Amino acid sequence: MATVEEHPGEPEPAPPAAPAPPAPRTPPPTAVPLDRRLLGWEVWLVLLLSLLGPTVSAVISLAGALTAPEGLAEQEANLIVSYAERPWLDLAYQLRVLAFGFVPVLLALYLLRRGGGSARSIGFDLRRPGRDLAVGALAAALVGTGGLAVYLAAQATGLGVTVVPSTLQQAWWQLPVLLGQAVKNGVLEEVIVVGYLLLRLDQLGWSPARAVAASALLRGCYHLYQGFGMFFGNIVMGLAFGWFYHRYGRVMPLVVAHTLIDAVAFVGSAYLIGRVDWLPGA
């Protein structure tokens, strides 16, 4: 019988290789757990980097105006000022102010994201552009008219200073800078003082009424440099805006309203102050 010839020196064929295990999937990023003590420090730091500095400046400015020999009613408050005589250099400074003015907003949105939220958590998004624009325009008309009445009444009673919205040079870039400042103010104040602050105070266990009152008081305080009339006027505005946010959970209509109010004030002042008798100013 024929036998199979063996070759002991040859290696045995290797078994088929087992399929490689699938690469481990990177776990999705997890939100940083919210700690009440750290959350409180976070709120203070965001406010210190955004609006508490202007609040201290406003208090100092009001103290200076009250102790001036001329009295409160004879003082002026300049909102947007020139930084240099040469137009191109002044424009560079204006752009710097605008660019860095948005940094606290980016920080607040980043911290919301780190905590598991996002800009949508406070309604700062473009999901409802038509409705946000319509509501914001209506709010701007109501609040702006009331604010102008409060300002004129404060001027007549000596409870306010003369607000000069802009002392920019008559250059080609004046209008874009004024509109940019209006957008910056609307985004900065409403995102931080309403959306971010009220959300964080709710997470810290504050009642809605207490949180809205604190937000409105802060808004009034950093407007103290405009006198007592605008201080109380901005508190009323803050209460209304805080109620709206608590009711609907969207800050974007408030950003639109604030931007329109400031745009009308800044641009209107550039063309009306000095040309109409009923509007105070040089």
UniProtKB/TrEMBL annotation:
* Residue spans crossing the bilayer: 43-66, 91-112, 133-154, 224-244, 251-273
Q: Where is the composition biased (Pro residues)?
A: 11-31
Which residue ranges does the record annotate as region Disordered? 1-31
Molecular-function GO terms, alphabetical: endopeptidase activity
Record keywords:
Hydrolase, Membrane, Protease, Transmembrane, Transmembrane helix
One Pfam family in the UniProt entry: Rce1-like
Q: What range does the record give for the signal peptide? A: none
The protein's name is: Membrane protease YdiL (CAAX protease family)
Q: Which organism is it from?
A: Allonocardiopsis opalescens
